[in-house]
């Protein structure tokens, strides 16, 4: 390709206006420029809060994992259902997502940035009339994503934030189901999004969600973590405790199943971080466990069912070789059939490992993935159901569980033996993780999309309710 | 062992060996930089040194010496927007109007305008319209009705004016995407009333509108508005079609169709499997039918080939067969192919080997004379020997059958088509041929009569399925048809004879009357003469056919004869045959008297 000749616009329909795409999730927040293939800025939505010298301080981004500061507590501005709860902090986290990698911090007021210290009383009065610093996103349109069940109030709040606080010239709020479908190159699709706090099924028709079909349930990645914790508690030789890396000072190798031999770090009670910090870091170990060990029973039936030749699937699963995992403290064990059990409840509510201490109540059958899909399809017109089944898009980082799409395919084929079922799940990890961001990146860089933006002028004219009219 | 031997043993055709391809001559391309003459001197093999010299690419040739065209962040507007939002994108800046256009002409024009303006002003006042504005297309929705129009034409008990408005708004908003419209349809009837006191009383139970209801309402309105705009008589064809289509929308039918679609979607796995199995079966059956039809056609075309009657007899003896083999071998050799028999067969060459295939019989005779060892059986005793061999074989067969694991019951014999022959004719013949021969009578006329009789009985001349039983019955049938034909012939003869005699009698009576008038004679003698010839004639014809079935023939002959006489009128042939018959009857009477 000759770099001196631009591709003709008709070729790809792109017309980039350096828009920023923000895809906030419960676990991570993705931000980047439209037209790129992956988000430049990927930060955890969690933030840390601690006090030092009597001042309350905040930590954002990957920094939250690094230092176990005294009294550091971890919070999340998002609710478990993917709706923003703490707007002030959400704003700060999102701002961090832009400024850390995309726009850079705007130069502060020269009077206050500490470089131009003027003696007291000499403050020149003529400086006060000067316009305060430029807004954060003054020259980039902003495209944000939201879950399909986002309430009106929350949507209005979002546009207010973008227009008034960040000063974006144009704004749009798109459903992440639609964006994931776009990322897969489809205008109509059944989007199955397996996220950290939620799984959702969104029927999309011609680039618009069908609200009556949108289904979601809390059996996401965090639920799987809670199942793994329940498994560790009831582990056979001895219960496994997860000790995060920051509590280990040294360890020696032990044989499988032997108690760990490690030296632990201890923190004085007043120096120790909050319990939420430990939970966050344990979660990191658990996600490693999910990546390395956990496997979805590939089907064709439930794990508890009996196979065609009289052998129960569980026996079959037992006969497959186990997978070893070493914990940060050196304890290691081979996980056999248990690695299937922790995710089985995504498809079979009865298979959930009971854990009374868990934050998640036992799942109901209606919360499982097959039921969600069934309900979603029952909510839409019968004419488009076969088309949706032929365009199933799987996205979300938790859908990367080994064997997930195979099982999903089996379940769908069993539920709907008639129509053709076709799952489109990108094999590329990044495309699966950032599906809705990539869709937003595509959408915001399209030339035809520019008429859809809500401009500042329109916002001023119609007020925040315009988001309901325009972002359908 | 050669491959040919193996082929011989396995009875494989010998021609499965394609000759190795001729080696393609690889024509090497003449490298650049060498003259043709020099290259020709090099011969076929190029020298082992590289002739091509490696050269560097050299400097790229610049197509033009124009200045580099800079890219600028330029603002633009989109005319599809109503608010004039200014966005900025990177745009190539053209230096002058002479620069050839790289992009769409539309953009070019805009940019030229921009170039004319000052650079600084162009930053602030964007004149360039986005090229994507042209894609802003809305679906065509009907004109909105006025109050009067609504009240006069569009009133409906089921739909309030407000709800209709709401529906029309949604249709416009979602560009007739019915799936989305039905999904977002959420009409609150009381919101229009406004007064909160009455709401509790007035709010009707919120009814759920199906997509069919919405569609039928919308189509009714759209069709009515179209008709109001242009009366149907003035509509263009497309408009009229649309109008008709919208008027004919049937919500009930649509609903039942969707119910069926839902049923189809929610089939169980068994039903789906059954359907696929049935479809597979159907496919198989149709494929088989096709095969069957082609096979049958082939068979018929083979049967249609005229039967060679002439010289098959000469191949029915083993000697004849060996002759045939020889001729075939000769023909084979003459074609210079690999022989059928392989090396041993080639060891018995003959001078007549070069004779071509068409005059095979004569050459076969020649070759037999030259190579007597090829036909070990003596020529004159050939037939007897063959018959004896066949009998021996049959006997051996019988023995073998008796020695076999189990003897077949008569029912099983019938089932498997096993037959026992006391005597077998030598050689091979088709059963159908034998049946065919029966239909060929000695005379052409007789053959035609036979064919006519068979046609009357609706029996095909050529048997469709010449099984053994069918052939036997066919033989019987032909036999009886022959007999009947004979009998008819006889009865015709008798008939005509009677007529002749009657005529003669009349004549005589006339004469007698005349005589009586003269001398008056009695007429008893003539009656006696009339009775005589009938049995005699029957006897004669029966003697021609079969002696033992005389009585039966007599009866049937009379019947058939009567029928035949009724059908066929009396012609000149009758008269002739009558005269012949009278001669014959004279003879027969003489014989009887003897």
TrEMBL record, chain A:
Family: Belongs to the actin family. ARP4 subfamily.
Superkingdom of origin: Eukaryota
Record's subunit section: Component of the NuA4 histone acetyltransferase complex, of the INO80 chromatin remodeling complex, and of the SWR1 chromatin remodeling complex.
Protein's cellular compartments: Nucleus
UniProt keyword list: Activator, Chromatin regulator, DNA damage, DNA repair, Nucleus, Transcription, Transcription regulation
GO cellular component: nucleus
CDD domains: ASKHA_NBD_Arp4_ACTL6-like
Signal peptide per UniProt: none
GO MF annotations, alphabetized: transferase activity
Name assigned to this protein: Actin-related protein 4
Record SUPFAM superfamilies: Actin-like ATPase domain
GO biological process, one term: DNA repair
Annotated segments matching region Disordered: 305-324
Function, in words: Chromatin interaction component of the NuA4 histone acetyltransferase complex which is involved in transcriptional activation of selected genes principally by acetylation of nucleosomal histone H4 and H2A. The NuA4 complex is also involved in DNA repair. Is required for NuA4 complex integrity. Component of the SWR1 complex which mediates the ATP-dependent exchange of histone H2A for the H2A variant HZT1 leading to transcriptional regulation of selected genes by chromatin remodeling. Component of the INO80 complex which remodels chromatin by shifting nucleosomes and is involved in DNA repair.
Predominant location category: nucleus
TrEMBL record, chain B:
Compositionally biased tracts (Basic and acidic residues): 1-10, 506-528, 547-558
Sequence ranges assigned to domain Myb-like in this UniProt record: 151-222
Main location: nucleus
Keywords noted in UniProt: Activator, Chromatin regulator, DNA damage, DNA repair, Methyltransferase, Nucleus, Transcription, Transcription regulation, Transferase
Protein location: Nucleus
Feature: compositional bias, Low complexity: 346-364, 371-383
Record-level GO BP terms: chromatin remodeling; DNA repair; methylation; negative regulation of transcription by RNA polymerase II
Residue span of region Disordered: 1-30, 96-125, 339-383, 506-594
A molecular function GO annotation: transcription corepressor activity
The keyword Isomerase is annotated on this UniProt entry: no
One Pfam short name: SANT_DAMP1_like
CC terms in the record's Gene Ontology section: NuA4 histone acetyltransferase complex; Swr1 complex
Domain of life: Eukaryota
Keyword Transcription appears in the UniProt entry: yes
Gene3D superfamilies for the chain: Homeodomain-like (1.10.10.60)
Protein family per UniProt: Belongs to the SWC4 family.
Purpose: Component of the SWR1 complex which mediates the ATP-dependent exchange of histone H2A for the H2A variant HZT1 leading to transcriptional regulation of selected genes by chromatin remodeling. Component of the NuA4 histone acetyltransferase complex which is involved in transcriptional activation of selected genes principally by acetylation of nucleosomal histone H4 and H2A. The NuA4 complex is also involved in DNA repair.
PANTHER family xrefs: DNA METHYLTRANSFERASE 1-ASSOCIATED PROTEIN 1, DNA METHYLTRANSFERASE 1-ASSOCIATED PROTEIN 1 FAMILY MEMBER
Oligomeric form and interacting partners: Component of the SWR1 chromatin-remodeling complex and of the NuA4 histone acetyltransferase complex.
Protein name as it appears in the record: SWR1-complex protein 4
Source organism of the structure: Aspergillus kawachii (White koji mold)
Name of the encoding gene: SWC4
């Amino acid at each position: 390709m000759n770099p001196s000749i631009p591709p003709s616009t008709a070729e790809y329909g792109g017309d980039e206006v350096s828009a920023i795409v923000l895809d906030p999730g419960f676990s991570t927040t993705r931000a980047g420029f439209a037209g790129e293939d992956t988000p430049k800025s990927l930060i955890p939505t969690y933030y840390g809060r601690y006090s030092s010298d009597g001042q309350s301080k905040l930590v954002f981004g990957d920094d939250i994992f690094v230092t176990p500061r005294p009294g550091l507590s971890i919070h999340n501005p998002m609710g478990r259902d993917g709706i923003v709860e703490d707007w002030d902090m959400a704003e700060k986290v999102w701002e961090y997502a832009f400024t850390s990698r995309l726009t850079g911090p705007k130069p502060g007021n020269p009077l206050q940035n500490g470089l131009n210290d003027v003696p007291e009383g000499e403050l020149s009065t003529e400086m006060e009339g000067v316009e305060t610093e430029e807004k954060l996103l003054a020259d980039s349109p902003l495209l944000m994503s939201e879950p399909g069940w986002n309430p009106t109030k929350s949507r209005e709040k979002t546009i207010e934030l973008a227009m008034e606080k960040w000063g974006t010239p144009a704004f749009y709020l798109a459903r992440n189901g639609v964006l994931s479908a776009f990322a897969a190159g489809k205008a109509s699709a059944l989007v199955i999004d397996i996220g950290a706090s939620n799984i959702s099924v969104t029927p999309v028709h011609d680039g618009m969600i069908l609200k009556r079909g949108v289904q979601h349930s809390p059996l996401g990645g965090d639920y799987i973590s809670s199942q793994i914790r329940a498994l560790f508690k009831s582990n056979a030789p001895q219960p496994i405790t997860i000790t995060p890396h920051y509590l280990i000072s040294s360890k020696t190798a032990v044989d499988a199943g032997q108690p760990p031999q490690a030296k632990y770090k201890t923190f004085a009670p007043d120096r120790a971080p909050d319990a939420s910090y430990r939970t966050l870091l344990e979660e990191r170990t658990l996600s490693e466990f999910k990546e390395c060990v956990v496997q979805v029973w590939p089907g064709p039936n439930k794990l508890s069912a009996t196979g065609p030749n009289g052998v129960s699937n569980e026996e079959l699963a037992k006969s497959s070789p186990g997978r070893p995992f070493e914990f940060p403290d050196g304890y290691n064990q081979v996980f056999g059939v248990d690695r299937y059990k922790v995710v089985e409840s995504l498809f079979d509510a009865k298979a959930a490992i009971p854990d009374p201490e868990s934050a998640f109540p036992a799942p109901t059958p209606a919360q499982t993935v097959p039921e969600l899909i069934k309900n979603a399809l029952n909510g839409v017109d019968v004419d488009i159901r076969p088309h949706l089944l032929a365009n199933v898009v799987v996205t979300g980082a938790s859908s990367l569980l080994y064997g997930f799409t195979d099982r999903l395919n089996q379940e769908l084929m069993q539920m709907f033996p008639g129509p053709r079922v076709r799952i489109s799940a990108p094999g590329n990890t990044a495309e699966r993780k950032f599906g809705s961001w990539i869709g937003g990146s595509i959408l915001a860089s399209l030339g035809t999309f520019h008429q859809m933006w809500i401009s500042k002028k329109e916002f001023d004219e119609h007020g925040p309710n315009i988001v309901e009219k325009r972002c359908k | 062992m050669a491959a040919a031997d193996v082929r011989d043993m396995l009875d494989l055709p010998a021609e499965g060996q394609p000759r190795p391809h001729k080696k393609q001559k690889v024509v090497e391309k003449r490298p650049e930089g060498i003259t043709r003459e020099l290259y020709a001197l090099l011969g076929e093999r190029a020298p082992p040194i590289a002739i091509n010299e490696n050269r560097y690419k050299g400097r790229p040739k610049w197509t033009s010496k124009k200045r580099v065209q800079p890219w600028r962040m330029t603002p633009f507007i989109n005319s599809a927007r109503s608010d004039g939002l200014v966005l900025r994108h990177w745009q190539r800046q053209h230096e002058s109007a002479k620069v050839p256009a790289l992009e769409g002409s539309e953009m070019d024009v805009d940019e030229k305008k921009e170039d004319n303006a000052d650079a600084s002003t162009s930053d602030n006042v964007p004149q360039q319209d986005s090229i994507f504005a042209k894609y802003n297309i809305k679906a065509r929705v009907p004109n909105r009705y006025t109050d009067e129009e609504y009240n006069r034409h569009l009133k409906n008990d089921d739909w309030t004016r407000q709800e209709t408005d709401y529906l029309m708004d949604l249709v416009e908003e979602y560009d007739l995407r019915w799936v989305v419209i039905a999904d977002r349809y959420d009409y609150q009837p009381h919101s229009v009333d406004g007064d909160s006191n009455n709401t509790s009383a007035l709010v009707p139970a919120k009814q759920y509108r199906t997509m069919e209801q919405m569609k039928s309402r919308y189509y009714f309105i759209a069709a009515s508005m179209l008709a109001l705009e242009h009366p149907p008589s003035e509509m263009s064809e497309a408009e009229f079609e649309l109008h008709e289509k919208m008027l004919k929308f049937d919500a009930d039918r649509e609903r039942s169709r969707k119910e069926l679609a839902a049923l189809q979607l929610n089939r169980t796995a068994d039903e789906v499997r059954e359907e696929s199995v049935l479809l597979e079966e159907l496919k198989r059956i149709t494929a088989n039918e096709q095969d069957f039809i082609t096979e049958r056609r082939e068979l018929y075309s083979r049967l249609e080939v005229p039967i060679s009657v002439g010289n098959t007899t000469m191949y029915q003896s083993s000697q004849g067969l060996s002759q045939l083999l020889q001729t075939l071998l000769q023909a084979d050799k003459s074609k210079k192919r690999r022989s059928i028999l392989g090396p041993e067969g080639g060891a018995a060459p003959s001078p007549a080997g070069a004779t071509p295939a068409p005059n095979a019989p004569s050459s076969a005779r020649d070759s037999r004379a030259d190579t007597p060892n090829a036909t070990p059986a003596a020529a004159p005793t050939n037939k007897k020997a063959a018959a004896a061999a066949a009998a021996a074989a049959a006997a051996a067969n019988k023995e073998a059958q008796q020695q076999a694991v189990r003897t077949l019951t008569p029912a099983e014999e019938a089932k498997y088509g096993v037959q026992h022959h006391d005597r077998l004719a030598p050689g091979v013949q088709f059963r159908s041929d034998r049946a065919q021969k029966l239909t060929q009578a000695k005379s052409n006329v007789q053959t035609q009569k036979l064919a006519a009789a068979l046609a009357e009985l609706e029996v095909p001349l050529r048997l469709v399925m010449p099984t053994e039983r069918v052939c036997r019955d066919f033989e019987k049938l032909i036999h009886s048809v022959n007999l009947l034909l004979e009998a008819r012939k006889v009865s015709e003869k008798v008939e005509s004879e009677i007529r002749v005699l009657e005529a003669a009698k009349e004549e005589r009576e006339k004469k007698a009357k005349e005589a009586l008038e003269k001398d008056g004679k009695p007429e008893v003698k003539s009656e006696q003469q009339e009775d005589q010839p009938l049995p005699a004639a029957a006897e004669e014809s029966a003697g021609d056919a079969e002696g033992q079935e005389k009585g039966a023939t007599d009866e049937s002959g009379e019947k058939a004869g009567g029928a035949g006489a009724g059908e066929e009128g009396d012609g000149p042939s009758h008269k002739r045959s009558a005269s012949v018959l009278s001669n014959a009857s004279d003879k027969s009477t003489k014989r009887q008297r003897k």
